[in-house]
Amino acid sequence: MSNNETTKKPPVMKGKGPMGGGPKGHAPAEKAKDIKGTAKKLAEILSKYKIAVIIVIIFAIGSTIFSIVGPKILGNATTEIYTGLMNKINGTGGMDFTKIGQIILWVIGLYVTSALFNLIQSYIMAGVSLKITYKIRNDLIHKINKLPMKYFDKKTHGEVLSIITNDVDTLSMGLSQSITQIITSICTIIGILVMMFSISWEMTIVSLLILPVSAGILKKVIGRSQKYFVRQQEYLGHVNGQVEEVYSGHNIVKVFGREKEAIKEFKKENDELYKSGWRSQFLSGLMHPLMNFVGNVGYVAVAILGGYFAVKGRITVGNIQSFIQYNKQFTQPIGQVAQISSTIQSMIAAAERIFEFLEEKEEVEDIENPVSTEGLKGNIKFDHVNFGYDPEKTIINDFNCDVKDGQKIAIVGPTGAGKTTMVKLLMRFYDVNSGAILIDGHNIKDFKRGELRKLFGMVLQDTWLYGGTIKDNIRYSRPEATDSEVIEAAKAAHVHHYIKTLSKGYEAVINEESSNISAGQKQLLTIARVILADPKILILDEATSSIDTRTEQQIQAAMDNLMKGRTSFIIAHRLSTIKNADLILVMDHGDIVEQGSHEELLAKDGFYAKLYNSQFEDCNDDIE
């Protein structure tokens, strides 16, 4: 099996991450560090679809123009009706229904055309945004496989998942909605101002005087409510975290009778969430009635001034109606722009994280003439190896070891001694700071990483299975393997009998969380996977720790057969499992402090003997 076995299945994040949770449209937008640079990169991506974007802009402008012209023409119909009624009252004529009908048909035609244009531009922009996000998702997945392991040591599974899910979705929504909304809103504001000025510049000035008042109210209310929205988001995270924590340890809570304490803690967090949520929603809810009040004051001022101009004969009744309609529409795009600005900030922040991920330094192959792995036996030499995750802090000091092919090498020592680090260096998840690791005399840096890792089979304490059939999970290490080879591997791993007891046998499906099989059976399946891969070198990291004693004895026998003729590295905490190792390396603080066979090390009565005896003393204490 290859290095894929090293990866645990990451937990799925729900409603969390940079863009997760919170009331939509209210939570404070996360700001990008380099807005200009990120916007430039987005523009470069959009430039690949410039023809489609230009068409979207043209249709968005057309849709807005047709929509704006409608009220002015509808005002003409109102004027015709008013004039006809006045003529009928005065006995000088009647209404021209033909002309009124033509005007109404014109208005209907304009609105239908506007809706059609809007539909077309929305359809095209949705296609562009989905194509962009489709490509970005592909790029992200390809990037993951090219990143070095040290990147994932710095990042949590949740952070990486958040980029691929939350950030990409935020970018997609921003591209499909914000761009067209900005174009529409700006065109609407300009168009309505032009139409209002064409009707009456005095009435337009009166309408514009309302804007500073509205802006002042918005600033005041948003300033007061912002801190409560921040607190609401904070306590929402606390509540979600507390529920997740208690639910995941529900059995423990029940066993120790801590239900009341859990409820008390939840109530405390939930009360704070309620208080901050109530205040934020109340203050946010004030905006609408306040804005309506200010808007109504503006309508009154416009109506009085319009009535005065109508009496003076300076404006028609239809134009007053059109102006009031424009005045009502004028504040809508301004509010949309304010709302869109928050969405754009979120989109830019999400795009920035995506671009940062895509620009991370990759694990590149820099070997021009790589050494072939064909015919290698598995002789491994650690030659004065020094390494530290932090260059200034060395944890492996002058490590030397000469391993012959077919030998079983056990690596033991306390937690943090450097056991697993040695394996990571061997598989080139990290490169040594100095010294060299050789396989059959060839420096591992002279191999392609992918080819090098195919030499190894790994079984870890933490098993990894994916949602699929048992057969497919075993075949994961060698997809071209036949059914009979899969069955032979399962027999060698002592899991064949268990599989046959299942109703569907090898076609039985393991669910996504692998919760429908026991931990021991999961470990047996991963061992079968390694057996099928038939690797040159084995790495067993506490491979039998989650298996009961009876099963462990079976697996130990299978492992002994599997390790024959193969170089094997066994990382173990239970020292009773490595008695028959050819060589035991005892590590402490990155150094090999002792080495030899089990009997030799016990005879020395040194560090290994103390570790070994302490484990048996613990066992005897437990028995007593």
Strand content: 5-15%
How many H/I helices?
A: 18
User: What is the 3D form?
Assistant: elongated
User: Percent range for helical residues?
Assistant: 55-70%
Radius of gyration, CA atoms, in whole angstroms: 36 Å
For the record, give the distance between the C-alpha atoms at the N and C termini, rounded to a whole number. Answer: 42 Å
What's the β-strand tally?
12
Report on the architecture of this protein.
The chain is an alpha/beta fold and 624 residues long. The chain has helices at residues 35-47, 50-90, 97-144, 149-154, 157-199, 201-248, 250-255, 259-311, 317-358, 419-426, 449-453, 470-474, 483-492, 496-501, 519-533, 549-563, 598-604, 607-623; strands at residues 380-387, 396-403, 408-412, 434-439, 442-443, 456-460, 468-469, 509-510, 537-541, 567-571, 583-588, 591-596. The strands form 3 sheets. The chain has a 6-stranded mixed sheet, with helices on both faces. It has a 4-stranded antiparallel sheet with strand order 2-1-4-5, with helices on one face. Helix 8 (259-311) packs antiparallel against helix 9 (317-358). It is elongated, with a radius of gyration of 36 Å.
Helices and strands, with pairings:
Layout: H1 35-47, H2 50-90, H3 97-144, H4 149-154, H5 157-199, H6 201-248, H7 250-255, H8 259-311, H9 317-358, E1 380-387, E2 396-403, E3 408-412, H10 419-426, E4 434-439, E5 442-443, H11 449-453, E6 456-460, E7 468-469, H12 470-474, H13 483-492, H14 496-501, E8 509-510, H15 519-533, E9 537-541, H16 549-563, E10 567-571, E11 583-588, E12 591-596, H17 598-604, H18 607-623
Parallel strand pairs: 3-10, 3-11, 6-9, 9-10
Antiparallel strand pairs: 1-2, 1-4, 4-5, 7-8, 11-12
